Amino acid sequence: MVSTDALVDAIFSKKRGKLLSGNRKDLVEYREIFRRLLLSDERDNLKRDSRKIDRLFPLCKRIFSSDSVAKVFLYLCLHGAATAWILQVKLNLAEATAYRALKQLRTLNIIKPAVRVPKKTDSKGGPRPTVWAIEGATTEEISEALKLHIKMTSPKYRIAEEVAQTILDNYLSKRRTLEITYREIVLQIKRLRIPFNTSDIAELTAQYLYERGIRIWR
Fewest CB atoms less than 10 Å from the CB: which of 116, 182, 193, 206? Predict the structure, then answer.
């Protein structure tokens, strides 16, 4: 197995704190190396993104000297592209922290702006969010990030997030368990009298809980 020090020396300059070679070909190759390491021995979809990222986090933390930059870099290695909002939610980062991490990765020429999120019809103005892409990201990855951002900023998703957090804090923590049935989720939503279709909110809530390590029984 390649040692951490050897991999760091092979890819990054410790003194300068940036890629040894800034050309696009090398960046694409480096992303593929990390992507393969992240996805090694993944036989199904039961592994969470956070658990995949944790596997290489110590290495990337040494490379970037920053927890947040390491997490964002590894997320982008896996998914290719993201907005600051996606990173805030998926990696549990503060808004300012997510933007600082993106700024540092852009300074290192590791990421670049790919596309801006379309303006909503009910928008009150202000800058439109940017989808940031790592070098070598495909158009499909950028498109998926755009769709994910739109989904995650929808009223239904935000309500599902609140419901999931309520279930975590007031239901699962008291039972000291990391699993729940889909029927229990539906019952919790009905008790809260959510002003949206119950099945829609239940699906989004189940997804949110799953991404945080909760097993969902259907």
Answer: 193
Q: Which structural domain range is residue 132 located in?
A: 4-139
Of 201, 165, 171, residue with least CA distance to 186: 201
Q: Pairing between strand 179-181 and 215-217?
A: parallel
Q: Are residues 160 and 185 in the same domain?
A: yes
Residue 144 included in any domain? no
- Consecutive sets of 10 residues in the chain, 218 residues long: mean pLDDT of each? 49 46 62 72 48 73 86 91 94 94 91 87 70 91 92 88 88 84 92 88 90 87
**pLDDT tens, residue by residue, 107-149:** 988 899 999 988 765 556 667 899 999 988 899 999 999 999 9
User: Would 24 be classed as within a structural domain?
Assistant: yes
DSSP codes, 3-41: -HHHHHHHHEETTTTEES--SHHHHHHHHHHHHHHHHTT
Residue 105 CB coordination number (10 Å): 19
Domain count, the chain: 2
pTM for the model stands at 0.69
Same-domain status, 23 and 98: yes
Q: How far is CA 135 from the centre of its chain?
A: 17
